[in-house]
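About this split. The held-out portion is used to measure sequence recovery: a designer receives only the structure tokens and must propose an amino acid at every position. Recovery is the fraction of positions where the proposal matches the reference. Here is one held-out target exactly as it appears in the evaluation file.
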């Protein structure tokens, strides 16, 4: 009887050790690390109205590194009136910034600090994304912000490449 009990315990221990790490539950941080393609963007105003500030399809990428660094690049459709011969002057609406981030595991929240940005008023500012969904398709609900006359909450739909 005792040998059977020991054998069963050993078998259980060995079988649980054989389960690959990918089959075990990942932490929130581990599940969001890497590249995310932006497949859609909306801005929701204070009054709940959904605004299309990009005037069409928005694409881009958010990268969250293991070391706590991030980058974000969003691009809208080309705008004819913005066209120029200067390569450093974009002919489309662009959001581009990078910095550091931390994670609130319990709140499924990414808190970031922008170190530099294509839009200088965003430099050295803090923000956050509250993450909804699981797996390879998520929504990043951004912290409320004000640009020009509008106060809004950005929502980014993202998926794994």
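Reference sequence for scoring:
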């Amino acid at each position: 009887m005792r040998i059977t009990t020991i054998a069963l315990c050993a078998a259980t221990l060995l079988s649980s050790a054989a389960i690959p790490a990918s089959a075990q539950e990942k932490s929130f941080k581990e599940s969001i690390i890497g590249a995310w393609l932006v497949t859609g963007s909306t801005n929701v105003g204070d009054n709940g109205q959904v605004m299309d500030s990009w005037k069409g399809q928005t694409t881009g990428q958010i990268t969250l590194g293991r070391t706590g660094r991030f980058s974000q690049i969003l691009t809208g459709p080309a705008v004819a009136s913005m066209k120029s011969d200067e390569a450093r002057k974009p002919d489309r609406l662009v959001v581009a910034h990078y910095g550091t981030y931390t994670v609130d595991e319990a709140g499924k929240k990414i808190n970031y600090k922008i170190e530099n940005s294509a839009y200088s008023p965003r430099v050295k500012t803090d923000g956050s994304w509250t993450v909804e969904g699981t797996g390879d398709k998520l929504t990043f609900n951004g912290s409320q912000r004000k640009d020009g006359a509008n106060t809004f909450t950005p929502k980014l739909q993202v998926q794994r490449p």
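Annotator remark: The two ends are 54 Å apart (CA to CA).
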